[in-house]
Amino acid sequence: MPADPRDVLSRPTAAPDVTVSYGDHPDQVADLRAPAGSGPARRLVVVVHGGFWRAEYDRRHTDPLAVGLAALGHPVAQVEYRRTGQPGGGWPATLTDVLTGVKELPRLAAEALPGRVAAGPPLLVGHSAGGHLALYVATTAPAAVGGVLALAPVSNLAEAYRLDLDEGAVAALLGGGPVEHPERYAEADPRLSVPTPTRTVVAHGALDQQVPIAMSREFVAAGRASGGDIALLELPECEHFGLIDPESAAWPQITAAFRSLQEDR
């Protein structure tokens, strides 16, 4: 693991192969990376970046994660979306942008990377706030999602609001708290929609200082109690950023969790 786990956020990587647009706004785009090697076409992987939904964080900080997933033989799309602190960001566009992107990207990727993208709904890999967005899409449009790997997801928005994670991040996203906007929380909060209707693996580091692991433990327990196909991978020596770092000690377990989404059961 690097001396500073945040180094992964700015580590240089190869440029994406192509960038496509799924809408008219400048942030309704995705960077595409072709799979490594010359193997058969495989399911698209959509990476949803975190950053507590804020404008100062964009898809580029998941470049090492995307490169690592492409090395496993999958085409990868790093979806961008409008974020809080910029025009149009927040409720509802932040959520609906990702939903639209996930629905459109399999077609766009197949056109841009001919012969490399297999038919079928994509696998979603979301980190932190991106984990929340991946879970939101899976709940809202389950037929559009082949499975979710949620890395330290903000899986309980009401609890995240109570804890004031990242100094008001949830309030900025939804325009206030659950008392002020119960209908928004009812639609956007994964915890209010358990079980997630698609196969889901949640991975979380026990040393996480950004999103408490207790949130994932409770979310997965509730999902399993409700009959959901969901599992929790706890990483006792990992913090928040090692989950998206192919150079971290956690990466072999992350790749194993990713592969488990594709296993027949």
Molecular structure report:
- There is one protein chain.
- With 265 residues, this protein is of the alpha/beta class.
- The chain has one domain: Rossmann fold (3-Layer(aba) Sandwich).
- 31% of the residues lie in helices and 15% in strands.
- The protein has eight helices and eight strands, in the order E-E-E-H-E-H-E-H-E-H-H-H-E-H-E-H.
- The protein has an eight-stranded mixed beta sheet with strand order 1-2-4-3-5-6-7-8, with helices on both faces.
- Helix 2 crosses helix 3.
- It is globular.
- The termini are far apart.
- The mean pLDDT is 96.
- InterPro entries: AB_hydrolase_fold, BD-FAE-like_dom, GDXG_lipolytic_enzyme.
- It comes from Micromonospora echinofusca.
- It holds the Pfam family BD-FAE.
- GO terms for molecular function: hydrolase activity.
- Keywords: Hydrolase.
Radius of gyration, Cα only, in angstroms? 17 Å
In percent terms, what proportion of residues is strand? Answer: 5-15%
| Backbone shape | globular
CATH class: Alpha Beta
In the predicted model, the low-confidence regions spanning at least 5 consecutive residues are none
User: What is the architecture at the second tier of CATH?
Assistant: 3-Layer(aba) Sandwich
CATH fold naming:
Rossmann fold
Number of strands: 8
Q: Output the structural class.
A: alpha/beta
Helix content: 25-40%
Strand order of the largest sheet: 1-2-4-3-5-6-7-8
Whole-number mean pLDDT? 96
* Total number of domains: 1
The largest β sheet comes out as: 8 strands, mixed
> Distance between the terminal alpha carbons, to the nearest Å?
34 Å
Organism: Micromonospora echinofusca
InterPro entries: AB_hydrolase_fold, BD-FAE-like_dom, GDXG_lipolytic_enzyme
Protein name: Alpha/beta hydrolase family protein
GO molecular function, one term: hydrolase activity
